[in-house]
TrEMBL record:
<dbReference type="GO" id="GO:0045905">
    <property type="term" value="P:positive regulation of translational termination"/>
</dbReference>
<dbReference type="InterPro" id="IPR003347">
    <property type="entry name" value="JmjC_dom"/>
</dbReference>
<dbReference type="GO" id="GO:0043565">
    <property type="term" value="F:sequence-specific DNA binding"/>
</dbReference>
<dbReference type="GO" id="GO:0016706">
    <property type="term" value="F:2-oxoglutarate-dependent dioxygenase activity"/>
</dbReference>
<dbReference type="InterPro" id="IPR041667">
    <property type="entry name" value="Cupin_8"/>
</dbReference>
<comment type="similarity">
    <text>Belongs to the JARID1 histone demethylase family.</text>
</comment>
<protein>
    <recommendedName>
        <fullName>JmjC domain-containing protein</fullName>
    </recommendedName>
</protein>
<dbReference type="InterPro" id="IPR050910">
    <property type="entry name" value="JMJD6_ArgDemeth/LysHydrox"/>
</dbReference>
<dbReference type="GO" id="GO:0005634">
    <property type="term" value="C:nucleus"/>
</dbReference>
<dbReference type="Pfam" id="PF13621">
    <property type="entry name" value="Cupin_8"/>
</dbReference>
<dbReference type="GO" id="GO:0005737">
    <property type="term" value="C:cytoplasm"/>
</dbReference>
<feature type="domain" description="JmjC">
    <location>
        <begin position="133"/>
        <end position="304"/>
    </location>
</feature>
Length: 489
């Protein structure tokens, strides 16, 4: 597909770096891309993926019949790329078989058979956000590349829910079971301009096909918004109304043409638009960790202000105005302040348990071991955000409290700890035996360990959590102002 005409009028300043992932260490990736929040295309990471064999025909196109035969009954979300609904494309639910029939009918351009009955000759359908991994855990389609394994979002969602009110949960499709997806669509399908959910990072791997990506760095993102910073441009390849979006022409974009077997890292807060230049299948995760957690919190703060402004006129007649704001925040953004606080408490406890194990093992690990440094960096990042949380409604008594001693007896929490242990071992110590080799963690003594004794084990507010964190960090003689802080996000 020739894209010259589409890109006419856009200022494109450069191409995204392309690096052989086999020659890049985890610490290099962190330093060059995670910390700098910079995109990169990584090659050489998909060699052994089952998806790359089963899902692709010998001529490199999507093996659609494989999907119909093996996964045809799955119900999925399909976007109509020709039909805008609010800020996104209109979506409908259908089975994978129906979607594939539509695709085949469309590419045949043929309206005569039964399978084409639903095809209206105009719409270009794009299967998005298919929770394939969750639905088919036994069919191991791929392995998450090492660079993207420190994924607190999916680790947490494998054991807990982000938001617990079922009506909010189901109504918008945002708060979901995980953020691991498959996308597939014919040439010409596309995703409108957006920054990712929660301002998470994402990675996207092309199992087959080619995608064109246009990226706008965060300092320029205001340029795609209207004067009130409320709505953003929907499609950068169309004529953009300059009276509505006065900054748009000044935006300077980065471009990337991502081929098959290439993985792109999408940093936090970068607006991007994506176009499939061929029939394409991709695997895509959203994720966050210590390096971009502040992006998530900043978005929540901003969305909270918007949610509050929207209902300001009913403040005086509302019994629980704050509760309503938090409810609307969860409905619009996928989590609210309480959800985020719960998440940070659990991740603090899990990181502390991991640290406890490493310290138990301290005869073989020095205090500056990369795994210990990693945990300290995590805890310091959480601590900085906690300090900001104190000035919100979370600082008041809201009736939620977390008991460390009880949490460490919860089997879901222990499973989360086991995965965290394994992940950090894989990242920093691939050759040493894991402290949870058999998939479980032993916590003998942890509930009575020194940081719990000093800090007390009940956490109800961000202030309590800071106390807990200080206690853990001081145990290591790593006060929050220590040197490592400067490398934190
Ligand atoms: O592949 C697409 O169409 C969109 C993917 C995307 O926007 C993302 O991974 O953040």
């Amino acid at each position: 597909m020739d894209t010259t005409e589409l890109k006419k009028g856009l200022k494109i300043a450069g191409q995204v770096d392309r690096v052989n992932g086999k020659l890049l260490s985890y610490s290099e990736f962190v330093e060059r891309y995670l910390v700098k929040n910079h995109p990169v295309v990584l090659t050489g990471l998909m060699d052994d993926w089952r998806a790359c064999k089963d899902w692709v025909t010998v001529n490199g196109s999507p093996n659609l019949s494989f999907f119909s035969i093996h996964f045809g009954k799955s119900e999925v979300q399909v976007a109509d790329c020709g039909y805008r609904e609010f800020t996104d494309q209109k979506r409908e639910e259908m089975s994978v078989s129906e979607f594939i029939n539509h695709w085949l009918a469309q590419s045949a351009g043929n309206h005569s058979t039964v399978v084409t009955e639903k095809y209206d000759g105009k719409s270009l359908l794009y299967l998005k956000d298919w929770h394939f991994m969750k639905e088919y855990p036994e069919y191991v389609a791929y392995a998450t590349p090492l660079f993207f394994c420190d994924d607190w979002l999916n680790l947490y969602l494998d054991k807990y829910r982000m938001h617990n009110e079922p009506d909010v949960q189901e109504s918008n499709g945002i708060s979901c079971s995980d953020y691991r997806f498959v996308y597939m669509g014919p040439k010409g399908t596309w995703t409108p301009l957006h920054a990712d959910v929660f301002r998470s990072y994402s990675w996207s791997a092309n199992v087959c096909g080619t995608k064109l990506w246009l990226f706008l760095p965060p300092p320029q993102c205001h340029l795609v918004f209207d004067r009130h910073m409320k709505s953003s441009v929907y499609n950068i390849f169309e004529e953009v109304d300059e009276s509505k979006y006065p900054g748009f022409k000044k935006a300077v974009w980065m471009e990337c043409t991502q081929g098959h077997n290439e993985v792109i890292f999408v940093p936090s807060g970068w607006y991007h638009q994506v176009l499939n230049l061929d029939d394409t299948i991709s695997i895509n995760h959203n994720w966050f960790n210590a390096y971009n957690l502040s992006w998530v919190w900043d978005l929540l703060r901003q969305d909270y202000e918007d949610a509050k402004d929207c209902i300001e006129d009913i403040r005086d007649i509302s019994d629980d105005f704050e509760g309503l704001c938090q409810r609307n925040l969860a409905a619009n953004t996928g989590m609210n302040f309480y959800d985020f606080f719960t998440f940070t408490v659990i991740m603090t406890f899990a990181n502390s348990v991991h640290l406890y194990h490493l310290m138990e093992d301290s005869k073989s690990l020095s205090n500056s071991h990369p795994r210990i440094n990693h945990i300290i960096l995590n805890l310091q990042s959480i601590r900085r955000i906690c300090l900001q949380m104190e000035s919100t409604c979370l600082g008041e008594n809201h009736g939620i409290s977390f008991d460390f001693k009880r949490t460490v007896c919860d089997p879901f929490f222990l499973e989360l700890c086991a995965v965290l242990d394994k992940t950090y071992q894989k990242l920093h110590d691939p050759c040493s035996p894991s402290c949870c080799e058999n998939g479980s963690v032993t916590l003998d003594g942890v509930e009575d360990s020194v940081f719990v004794k000093i800090s007390g084990s009940l956490v109800s507010t961000p202030e309590n959590l800071v106390g807990f964190l200080d206690c853990v960090l001081q145990k290591l003689d790593r006060t929050p102002c220590s040197k490592i802080n400067s490398s934190c996000p």
